[in-house]
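Both lines are retained for reference:
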Amino acid sequence: MIFITGTDTGVGKTFVSKIIGKHLKYKENINTGYLKPIESGGIEDTATLKEALNLDDDLNILNPVNLKNPLSPNIAAEIENKPIDLVEIKKSFDLLKNKYDFLIIEGAGGVAVPIKYNSFLMSDLIVYLGAPAIIVSRPDLGTINHTLLTIEHLRNKGILVKGVIINCINELDTVLHYEKTFETINRCGNVEIIGIVKNEKEYNINFDKIIG
């Protein structure tokens, strides 16, 4: 299993999860499942992966905590008077983990997004589920800081970081010296960039690093 997290909201965690899931299921013939423990602002991410992987699981299993407002989970839960139940998340996790040979778990927002006001963060959920992580990052200015902070935060929680995948939400041709940016992340973060995603059909990902 793997936990797909990101340097921020909108960096492309769902998009990358879809690419990984479809490759593992349809090209590697691995029985691959998906879990979105918490989704804020609708059900679109979960529905996208359910369709892409042709999963027969109910949406409320794939996404045990669904919040209507596109806000940090702790805030959305408070506004909607809907306390986040970790037991329900664990039930879905156990069911899917036992059903599938490989489980993709996708977070919401970044690693320091609060789930509860008692300082239970998204990274604590990763620890709770016992999963290693892959970080989805972007290629443009500012990504070095965001990526290195994310790596450090995860490692401080004892979470194994398997690598970074760069999702090109900006065309690489428009990013000055992006090779140097990637090299800096690699060296300063002591982490491997295991993939670059240009679009749904053009990507280079080391899948052995994901499933190994």
User: Anything to note?
Assistant: Residues 13-27 form the longest helix (15 residues). Residues 74 and 115 are 5 Å apart (CA to CA). The chain is about 40% helix and 25% strand.
